[in-house]
Amino acid sequence: MKNLARFRRFIGDFTRLVDDKTVDEPAIFARGGKLLEALVAHDDWLPEQCTQPHPQYYQQYLLYCDPFERFSVVSFVWGPGQKTPVHDHCVWGMIGMLRGAENCRRFTLGAPGQPMRAEETCTLKPGTVDRVSPTVGDVHEVSNALADQPSISIHIYGANIGAVARHVYDPATSAIKPFVSGYSIP
User: Fold this and answer.
1) Residue 179: what are its φ and ψ, rounded to 5°?
2) Backbone φ and ψ of 6, nearest 5°
């Protein structure tokens, strides 16, 4: 890491936040969101090996997992034109844009066999933070907003997200399939 001290401070500050037993999800979003905004305001700390796109699909590099799996920090690297399937997280999460831009389109589940309802697409630019959770909206599709270069976002989740049983959705039929994302190997 170029500026390991910056990332270590962030991990220490976030650990102290989740150590506070009085902190609920809105407080994690408020206080943790400010910590993430401060981290992604600087592009001098992410290891080079966790910035590498794959030519066919997005990469999900684990940067840190709390020893008690209370939170994990992940670098998502999007090559041009890459996107996720429609999916959920089943835990709280925050997305901070580090480089490039990312489109996020939320969905609402339809009746069985019916299409899902797509919501408005938002675009994250460097320094901005978005939030997901079962309480604030958890089902979305994410894509690189740039056609000619990679984009990188830093995600924090309220669990070891690579091991969480989650779901992907068929937007045409609202069909649900379980999945566990795992992590990319740098």
Assistant:
1) -155, 160
2) -60, -45
CA-nearest of 93, 89, 63, 66 to 75 is 63
d(CA 8, CA 21): 22
Q: Which fold has domain 48-179?
A: Jelly Rolls (2.60.120)
Please give the Cα distance from 107 to 30 (Å, whole number).
Answer: 24
Q: How many Cα atoms are found within 13 Å in the side-chain-facing hemisphere of 7?
A: 17
Query: What pTM does this model have?
Result: 0.95
Cβ contact 66:158 at 8 Å: no
Task: Give the pLDDT means over successive 10-residue stretches in the chain (186 positions).
Answer: 88 98 97 98 95 95 98 98 96 98 96 95 97 96 97 98 98 97 93
Look up residue 67 and give its amino acid.
P
The angle that helices 33-40 and 4-19 make with each other, rounded to 10 degrees, is 180
